[in-house]
Amino acid sequence: MKVMVTGGDGYIGSHCVLALLDSGYDVLTFDNHSTGHIQTSENISGISTEGRFLGTFSGDLLNVDDINRALKENDMDAVIHFAAFSQVAESMKRPDIYYRNNVCGTMNLLDAMKDHGVDKIVFSSTAATYGEPEYTPIDEDHPQRPINPYGRTKLTVEGMMDDYDLAYGIRSVRLRYFNVAGADSGCRVGEWHDPETHLIPNILKSTFGDGKEFELFGDDYDTRDGTCIRDYVNVEDLADAHILALEYLVNGGGTDFFNLGTNEGSSVKEVFAECEKVTGKKIPLKIKGRRPGDPAVLVADNRKAKEILHWNPRRTLSDSIRTAYMWEKKMRGN
């Protein structure tokens, strides 16, 4: 079976590409490399896997001709869609590029799928569609009231996918991620952002003695230790969920949506302490005031994904930190 992975040279996309290849799928990545790295595909092309890596199609979802050529020339059976801008702060400053890229780009993709008879898509959505939590753990029935343009673009796409299913029979699974962490356990791919905004890699970067100090924003929240609590799901577990979602669609499953998290939360201080434990290093820390818009607790209720997709996250927070640290050392040549 041939699968096109948009944004396949990015962080989560590249891990999904490897998981698909390891599971025997033939995979084409589609990426404009605005945030993903072409070196990722070059690295993957040299890895021995069960499936065939069909290479990277350098194209843009805002160019319909690119999508049509990729689908036609490679005779794709399904799509897994990661390509999107995803920085909340940037979306507040530049909503125009977020709506254009995330919404218009996805509409172009769905139109091309319709024209080429590709009727299955797994979509990288986000817990940001829920907005400020009214209760935790957050289940799929929680109201969706996003509080930033990034979350609103993802919610718009979810609604679009419902409409394309009803009108054209394109079935979709939308996977709403909580906080993603870790790297490939074989150190084949990992997280590679510039600038880096995620908690764990930023803590780990502070262990290398280059003067970087980790900044903790807010220690006066109404939580067990005063710092924000988040649900950290391992990126390899996340990749497994995409394969299960694809198999669900292949086996005739209908359009649906699922939370991906661990059903447990870790505070920033707990993550910090675990990073020190894994690395064996004392990490420089500076406590600053709260950032606006940071909820105290964000934890997923993942029962629906367990029951319907038969997905069970297996890796621990320590596993995620260990693999992220291995990748960071590899990137630095250590």
From TrEMBL:
Its EC number is 5.1.3.2. It is an enzyme of class 5 (isomerase). The keyword Repeat does not apply. The keyword Nucleotide-binding does not apply. Residues 4-322 form the NAD(P)-binding domain. It comes from the Archaea. GO terms for biological process: galactose catabolic process via UDP-galactose, Leloir pathway. Pfam families: GDP_Man_Dehyd. GO terms for molecular function: UDP-glucose 4-epimerase activity. PANTHER family: UDP-ARABINOSE 4-EPIMERASE 1, UDP-GLUCOSE 4-EPIMERASE. This is UDP-glucose 4-epimerase. It comes from Methanomethylophilus alvi (strain Mx1201).
